[in-house]
Design a protein that fits this description.
about 90 residues, alpha+beta, Beta-Lactamase, three-stranded antiparallel β-sheet
């Protein structure tokens, strides 16, 4: 097995600059703070939440695809937890 990373740091730099090109000063903020959270839309329009950071002094990203439609609470949690949240939190009047 080869010990080289899947992406070289030069590749990560190109990728991050592309993803941050719509954000004024984005790459500078990332390099200064060594982390940055932002949203990104792929060319097909798919939305992502992105966390760019440094790991072991190397550029890294974690991306999470955002669903187009909201997911029902019951699909995210156990039914009894979803019911408790709906009953005790979401249905409370302020």
């Amino acid at each position: 097995m080869d010990d080289k990373p899947l992406l070289m740091q030069e590749d990560m730099d190109i990728i991050l600059r592309h993803m941050l090109e719509k954000y004024s000063g984005g790459i500078e903020k990332y390099l200064k703070n060594r982390e940055l959270d932002f949203n990104y839309y792929s060319p097909s329009g798919t939305p992502y939440r992105v966390n760019a950071f440094f790991k072991l002094n190397n550029m890294a990203v974690a991306m999470r695809k955002i669903a187009y439609k909201p997911i029902p609470l019951e699909n995210l949690l156990y039914d009894d937890v979803a019911t408790t949240i709906k009953t005790n939190i979401l249905n409370q009047k302020t």
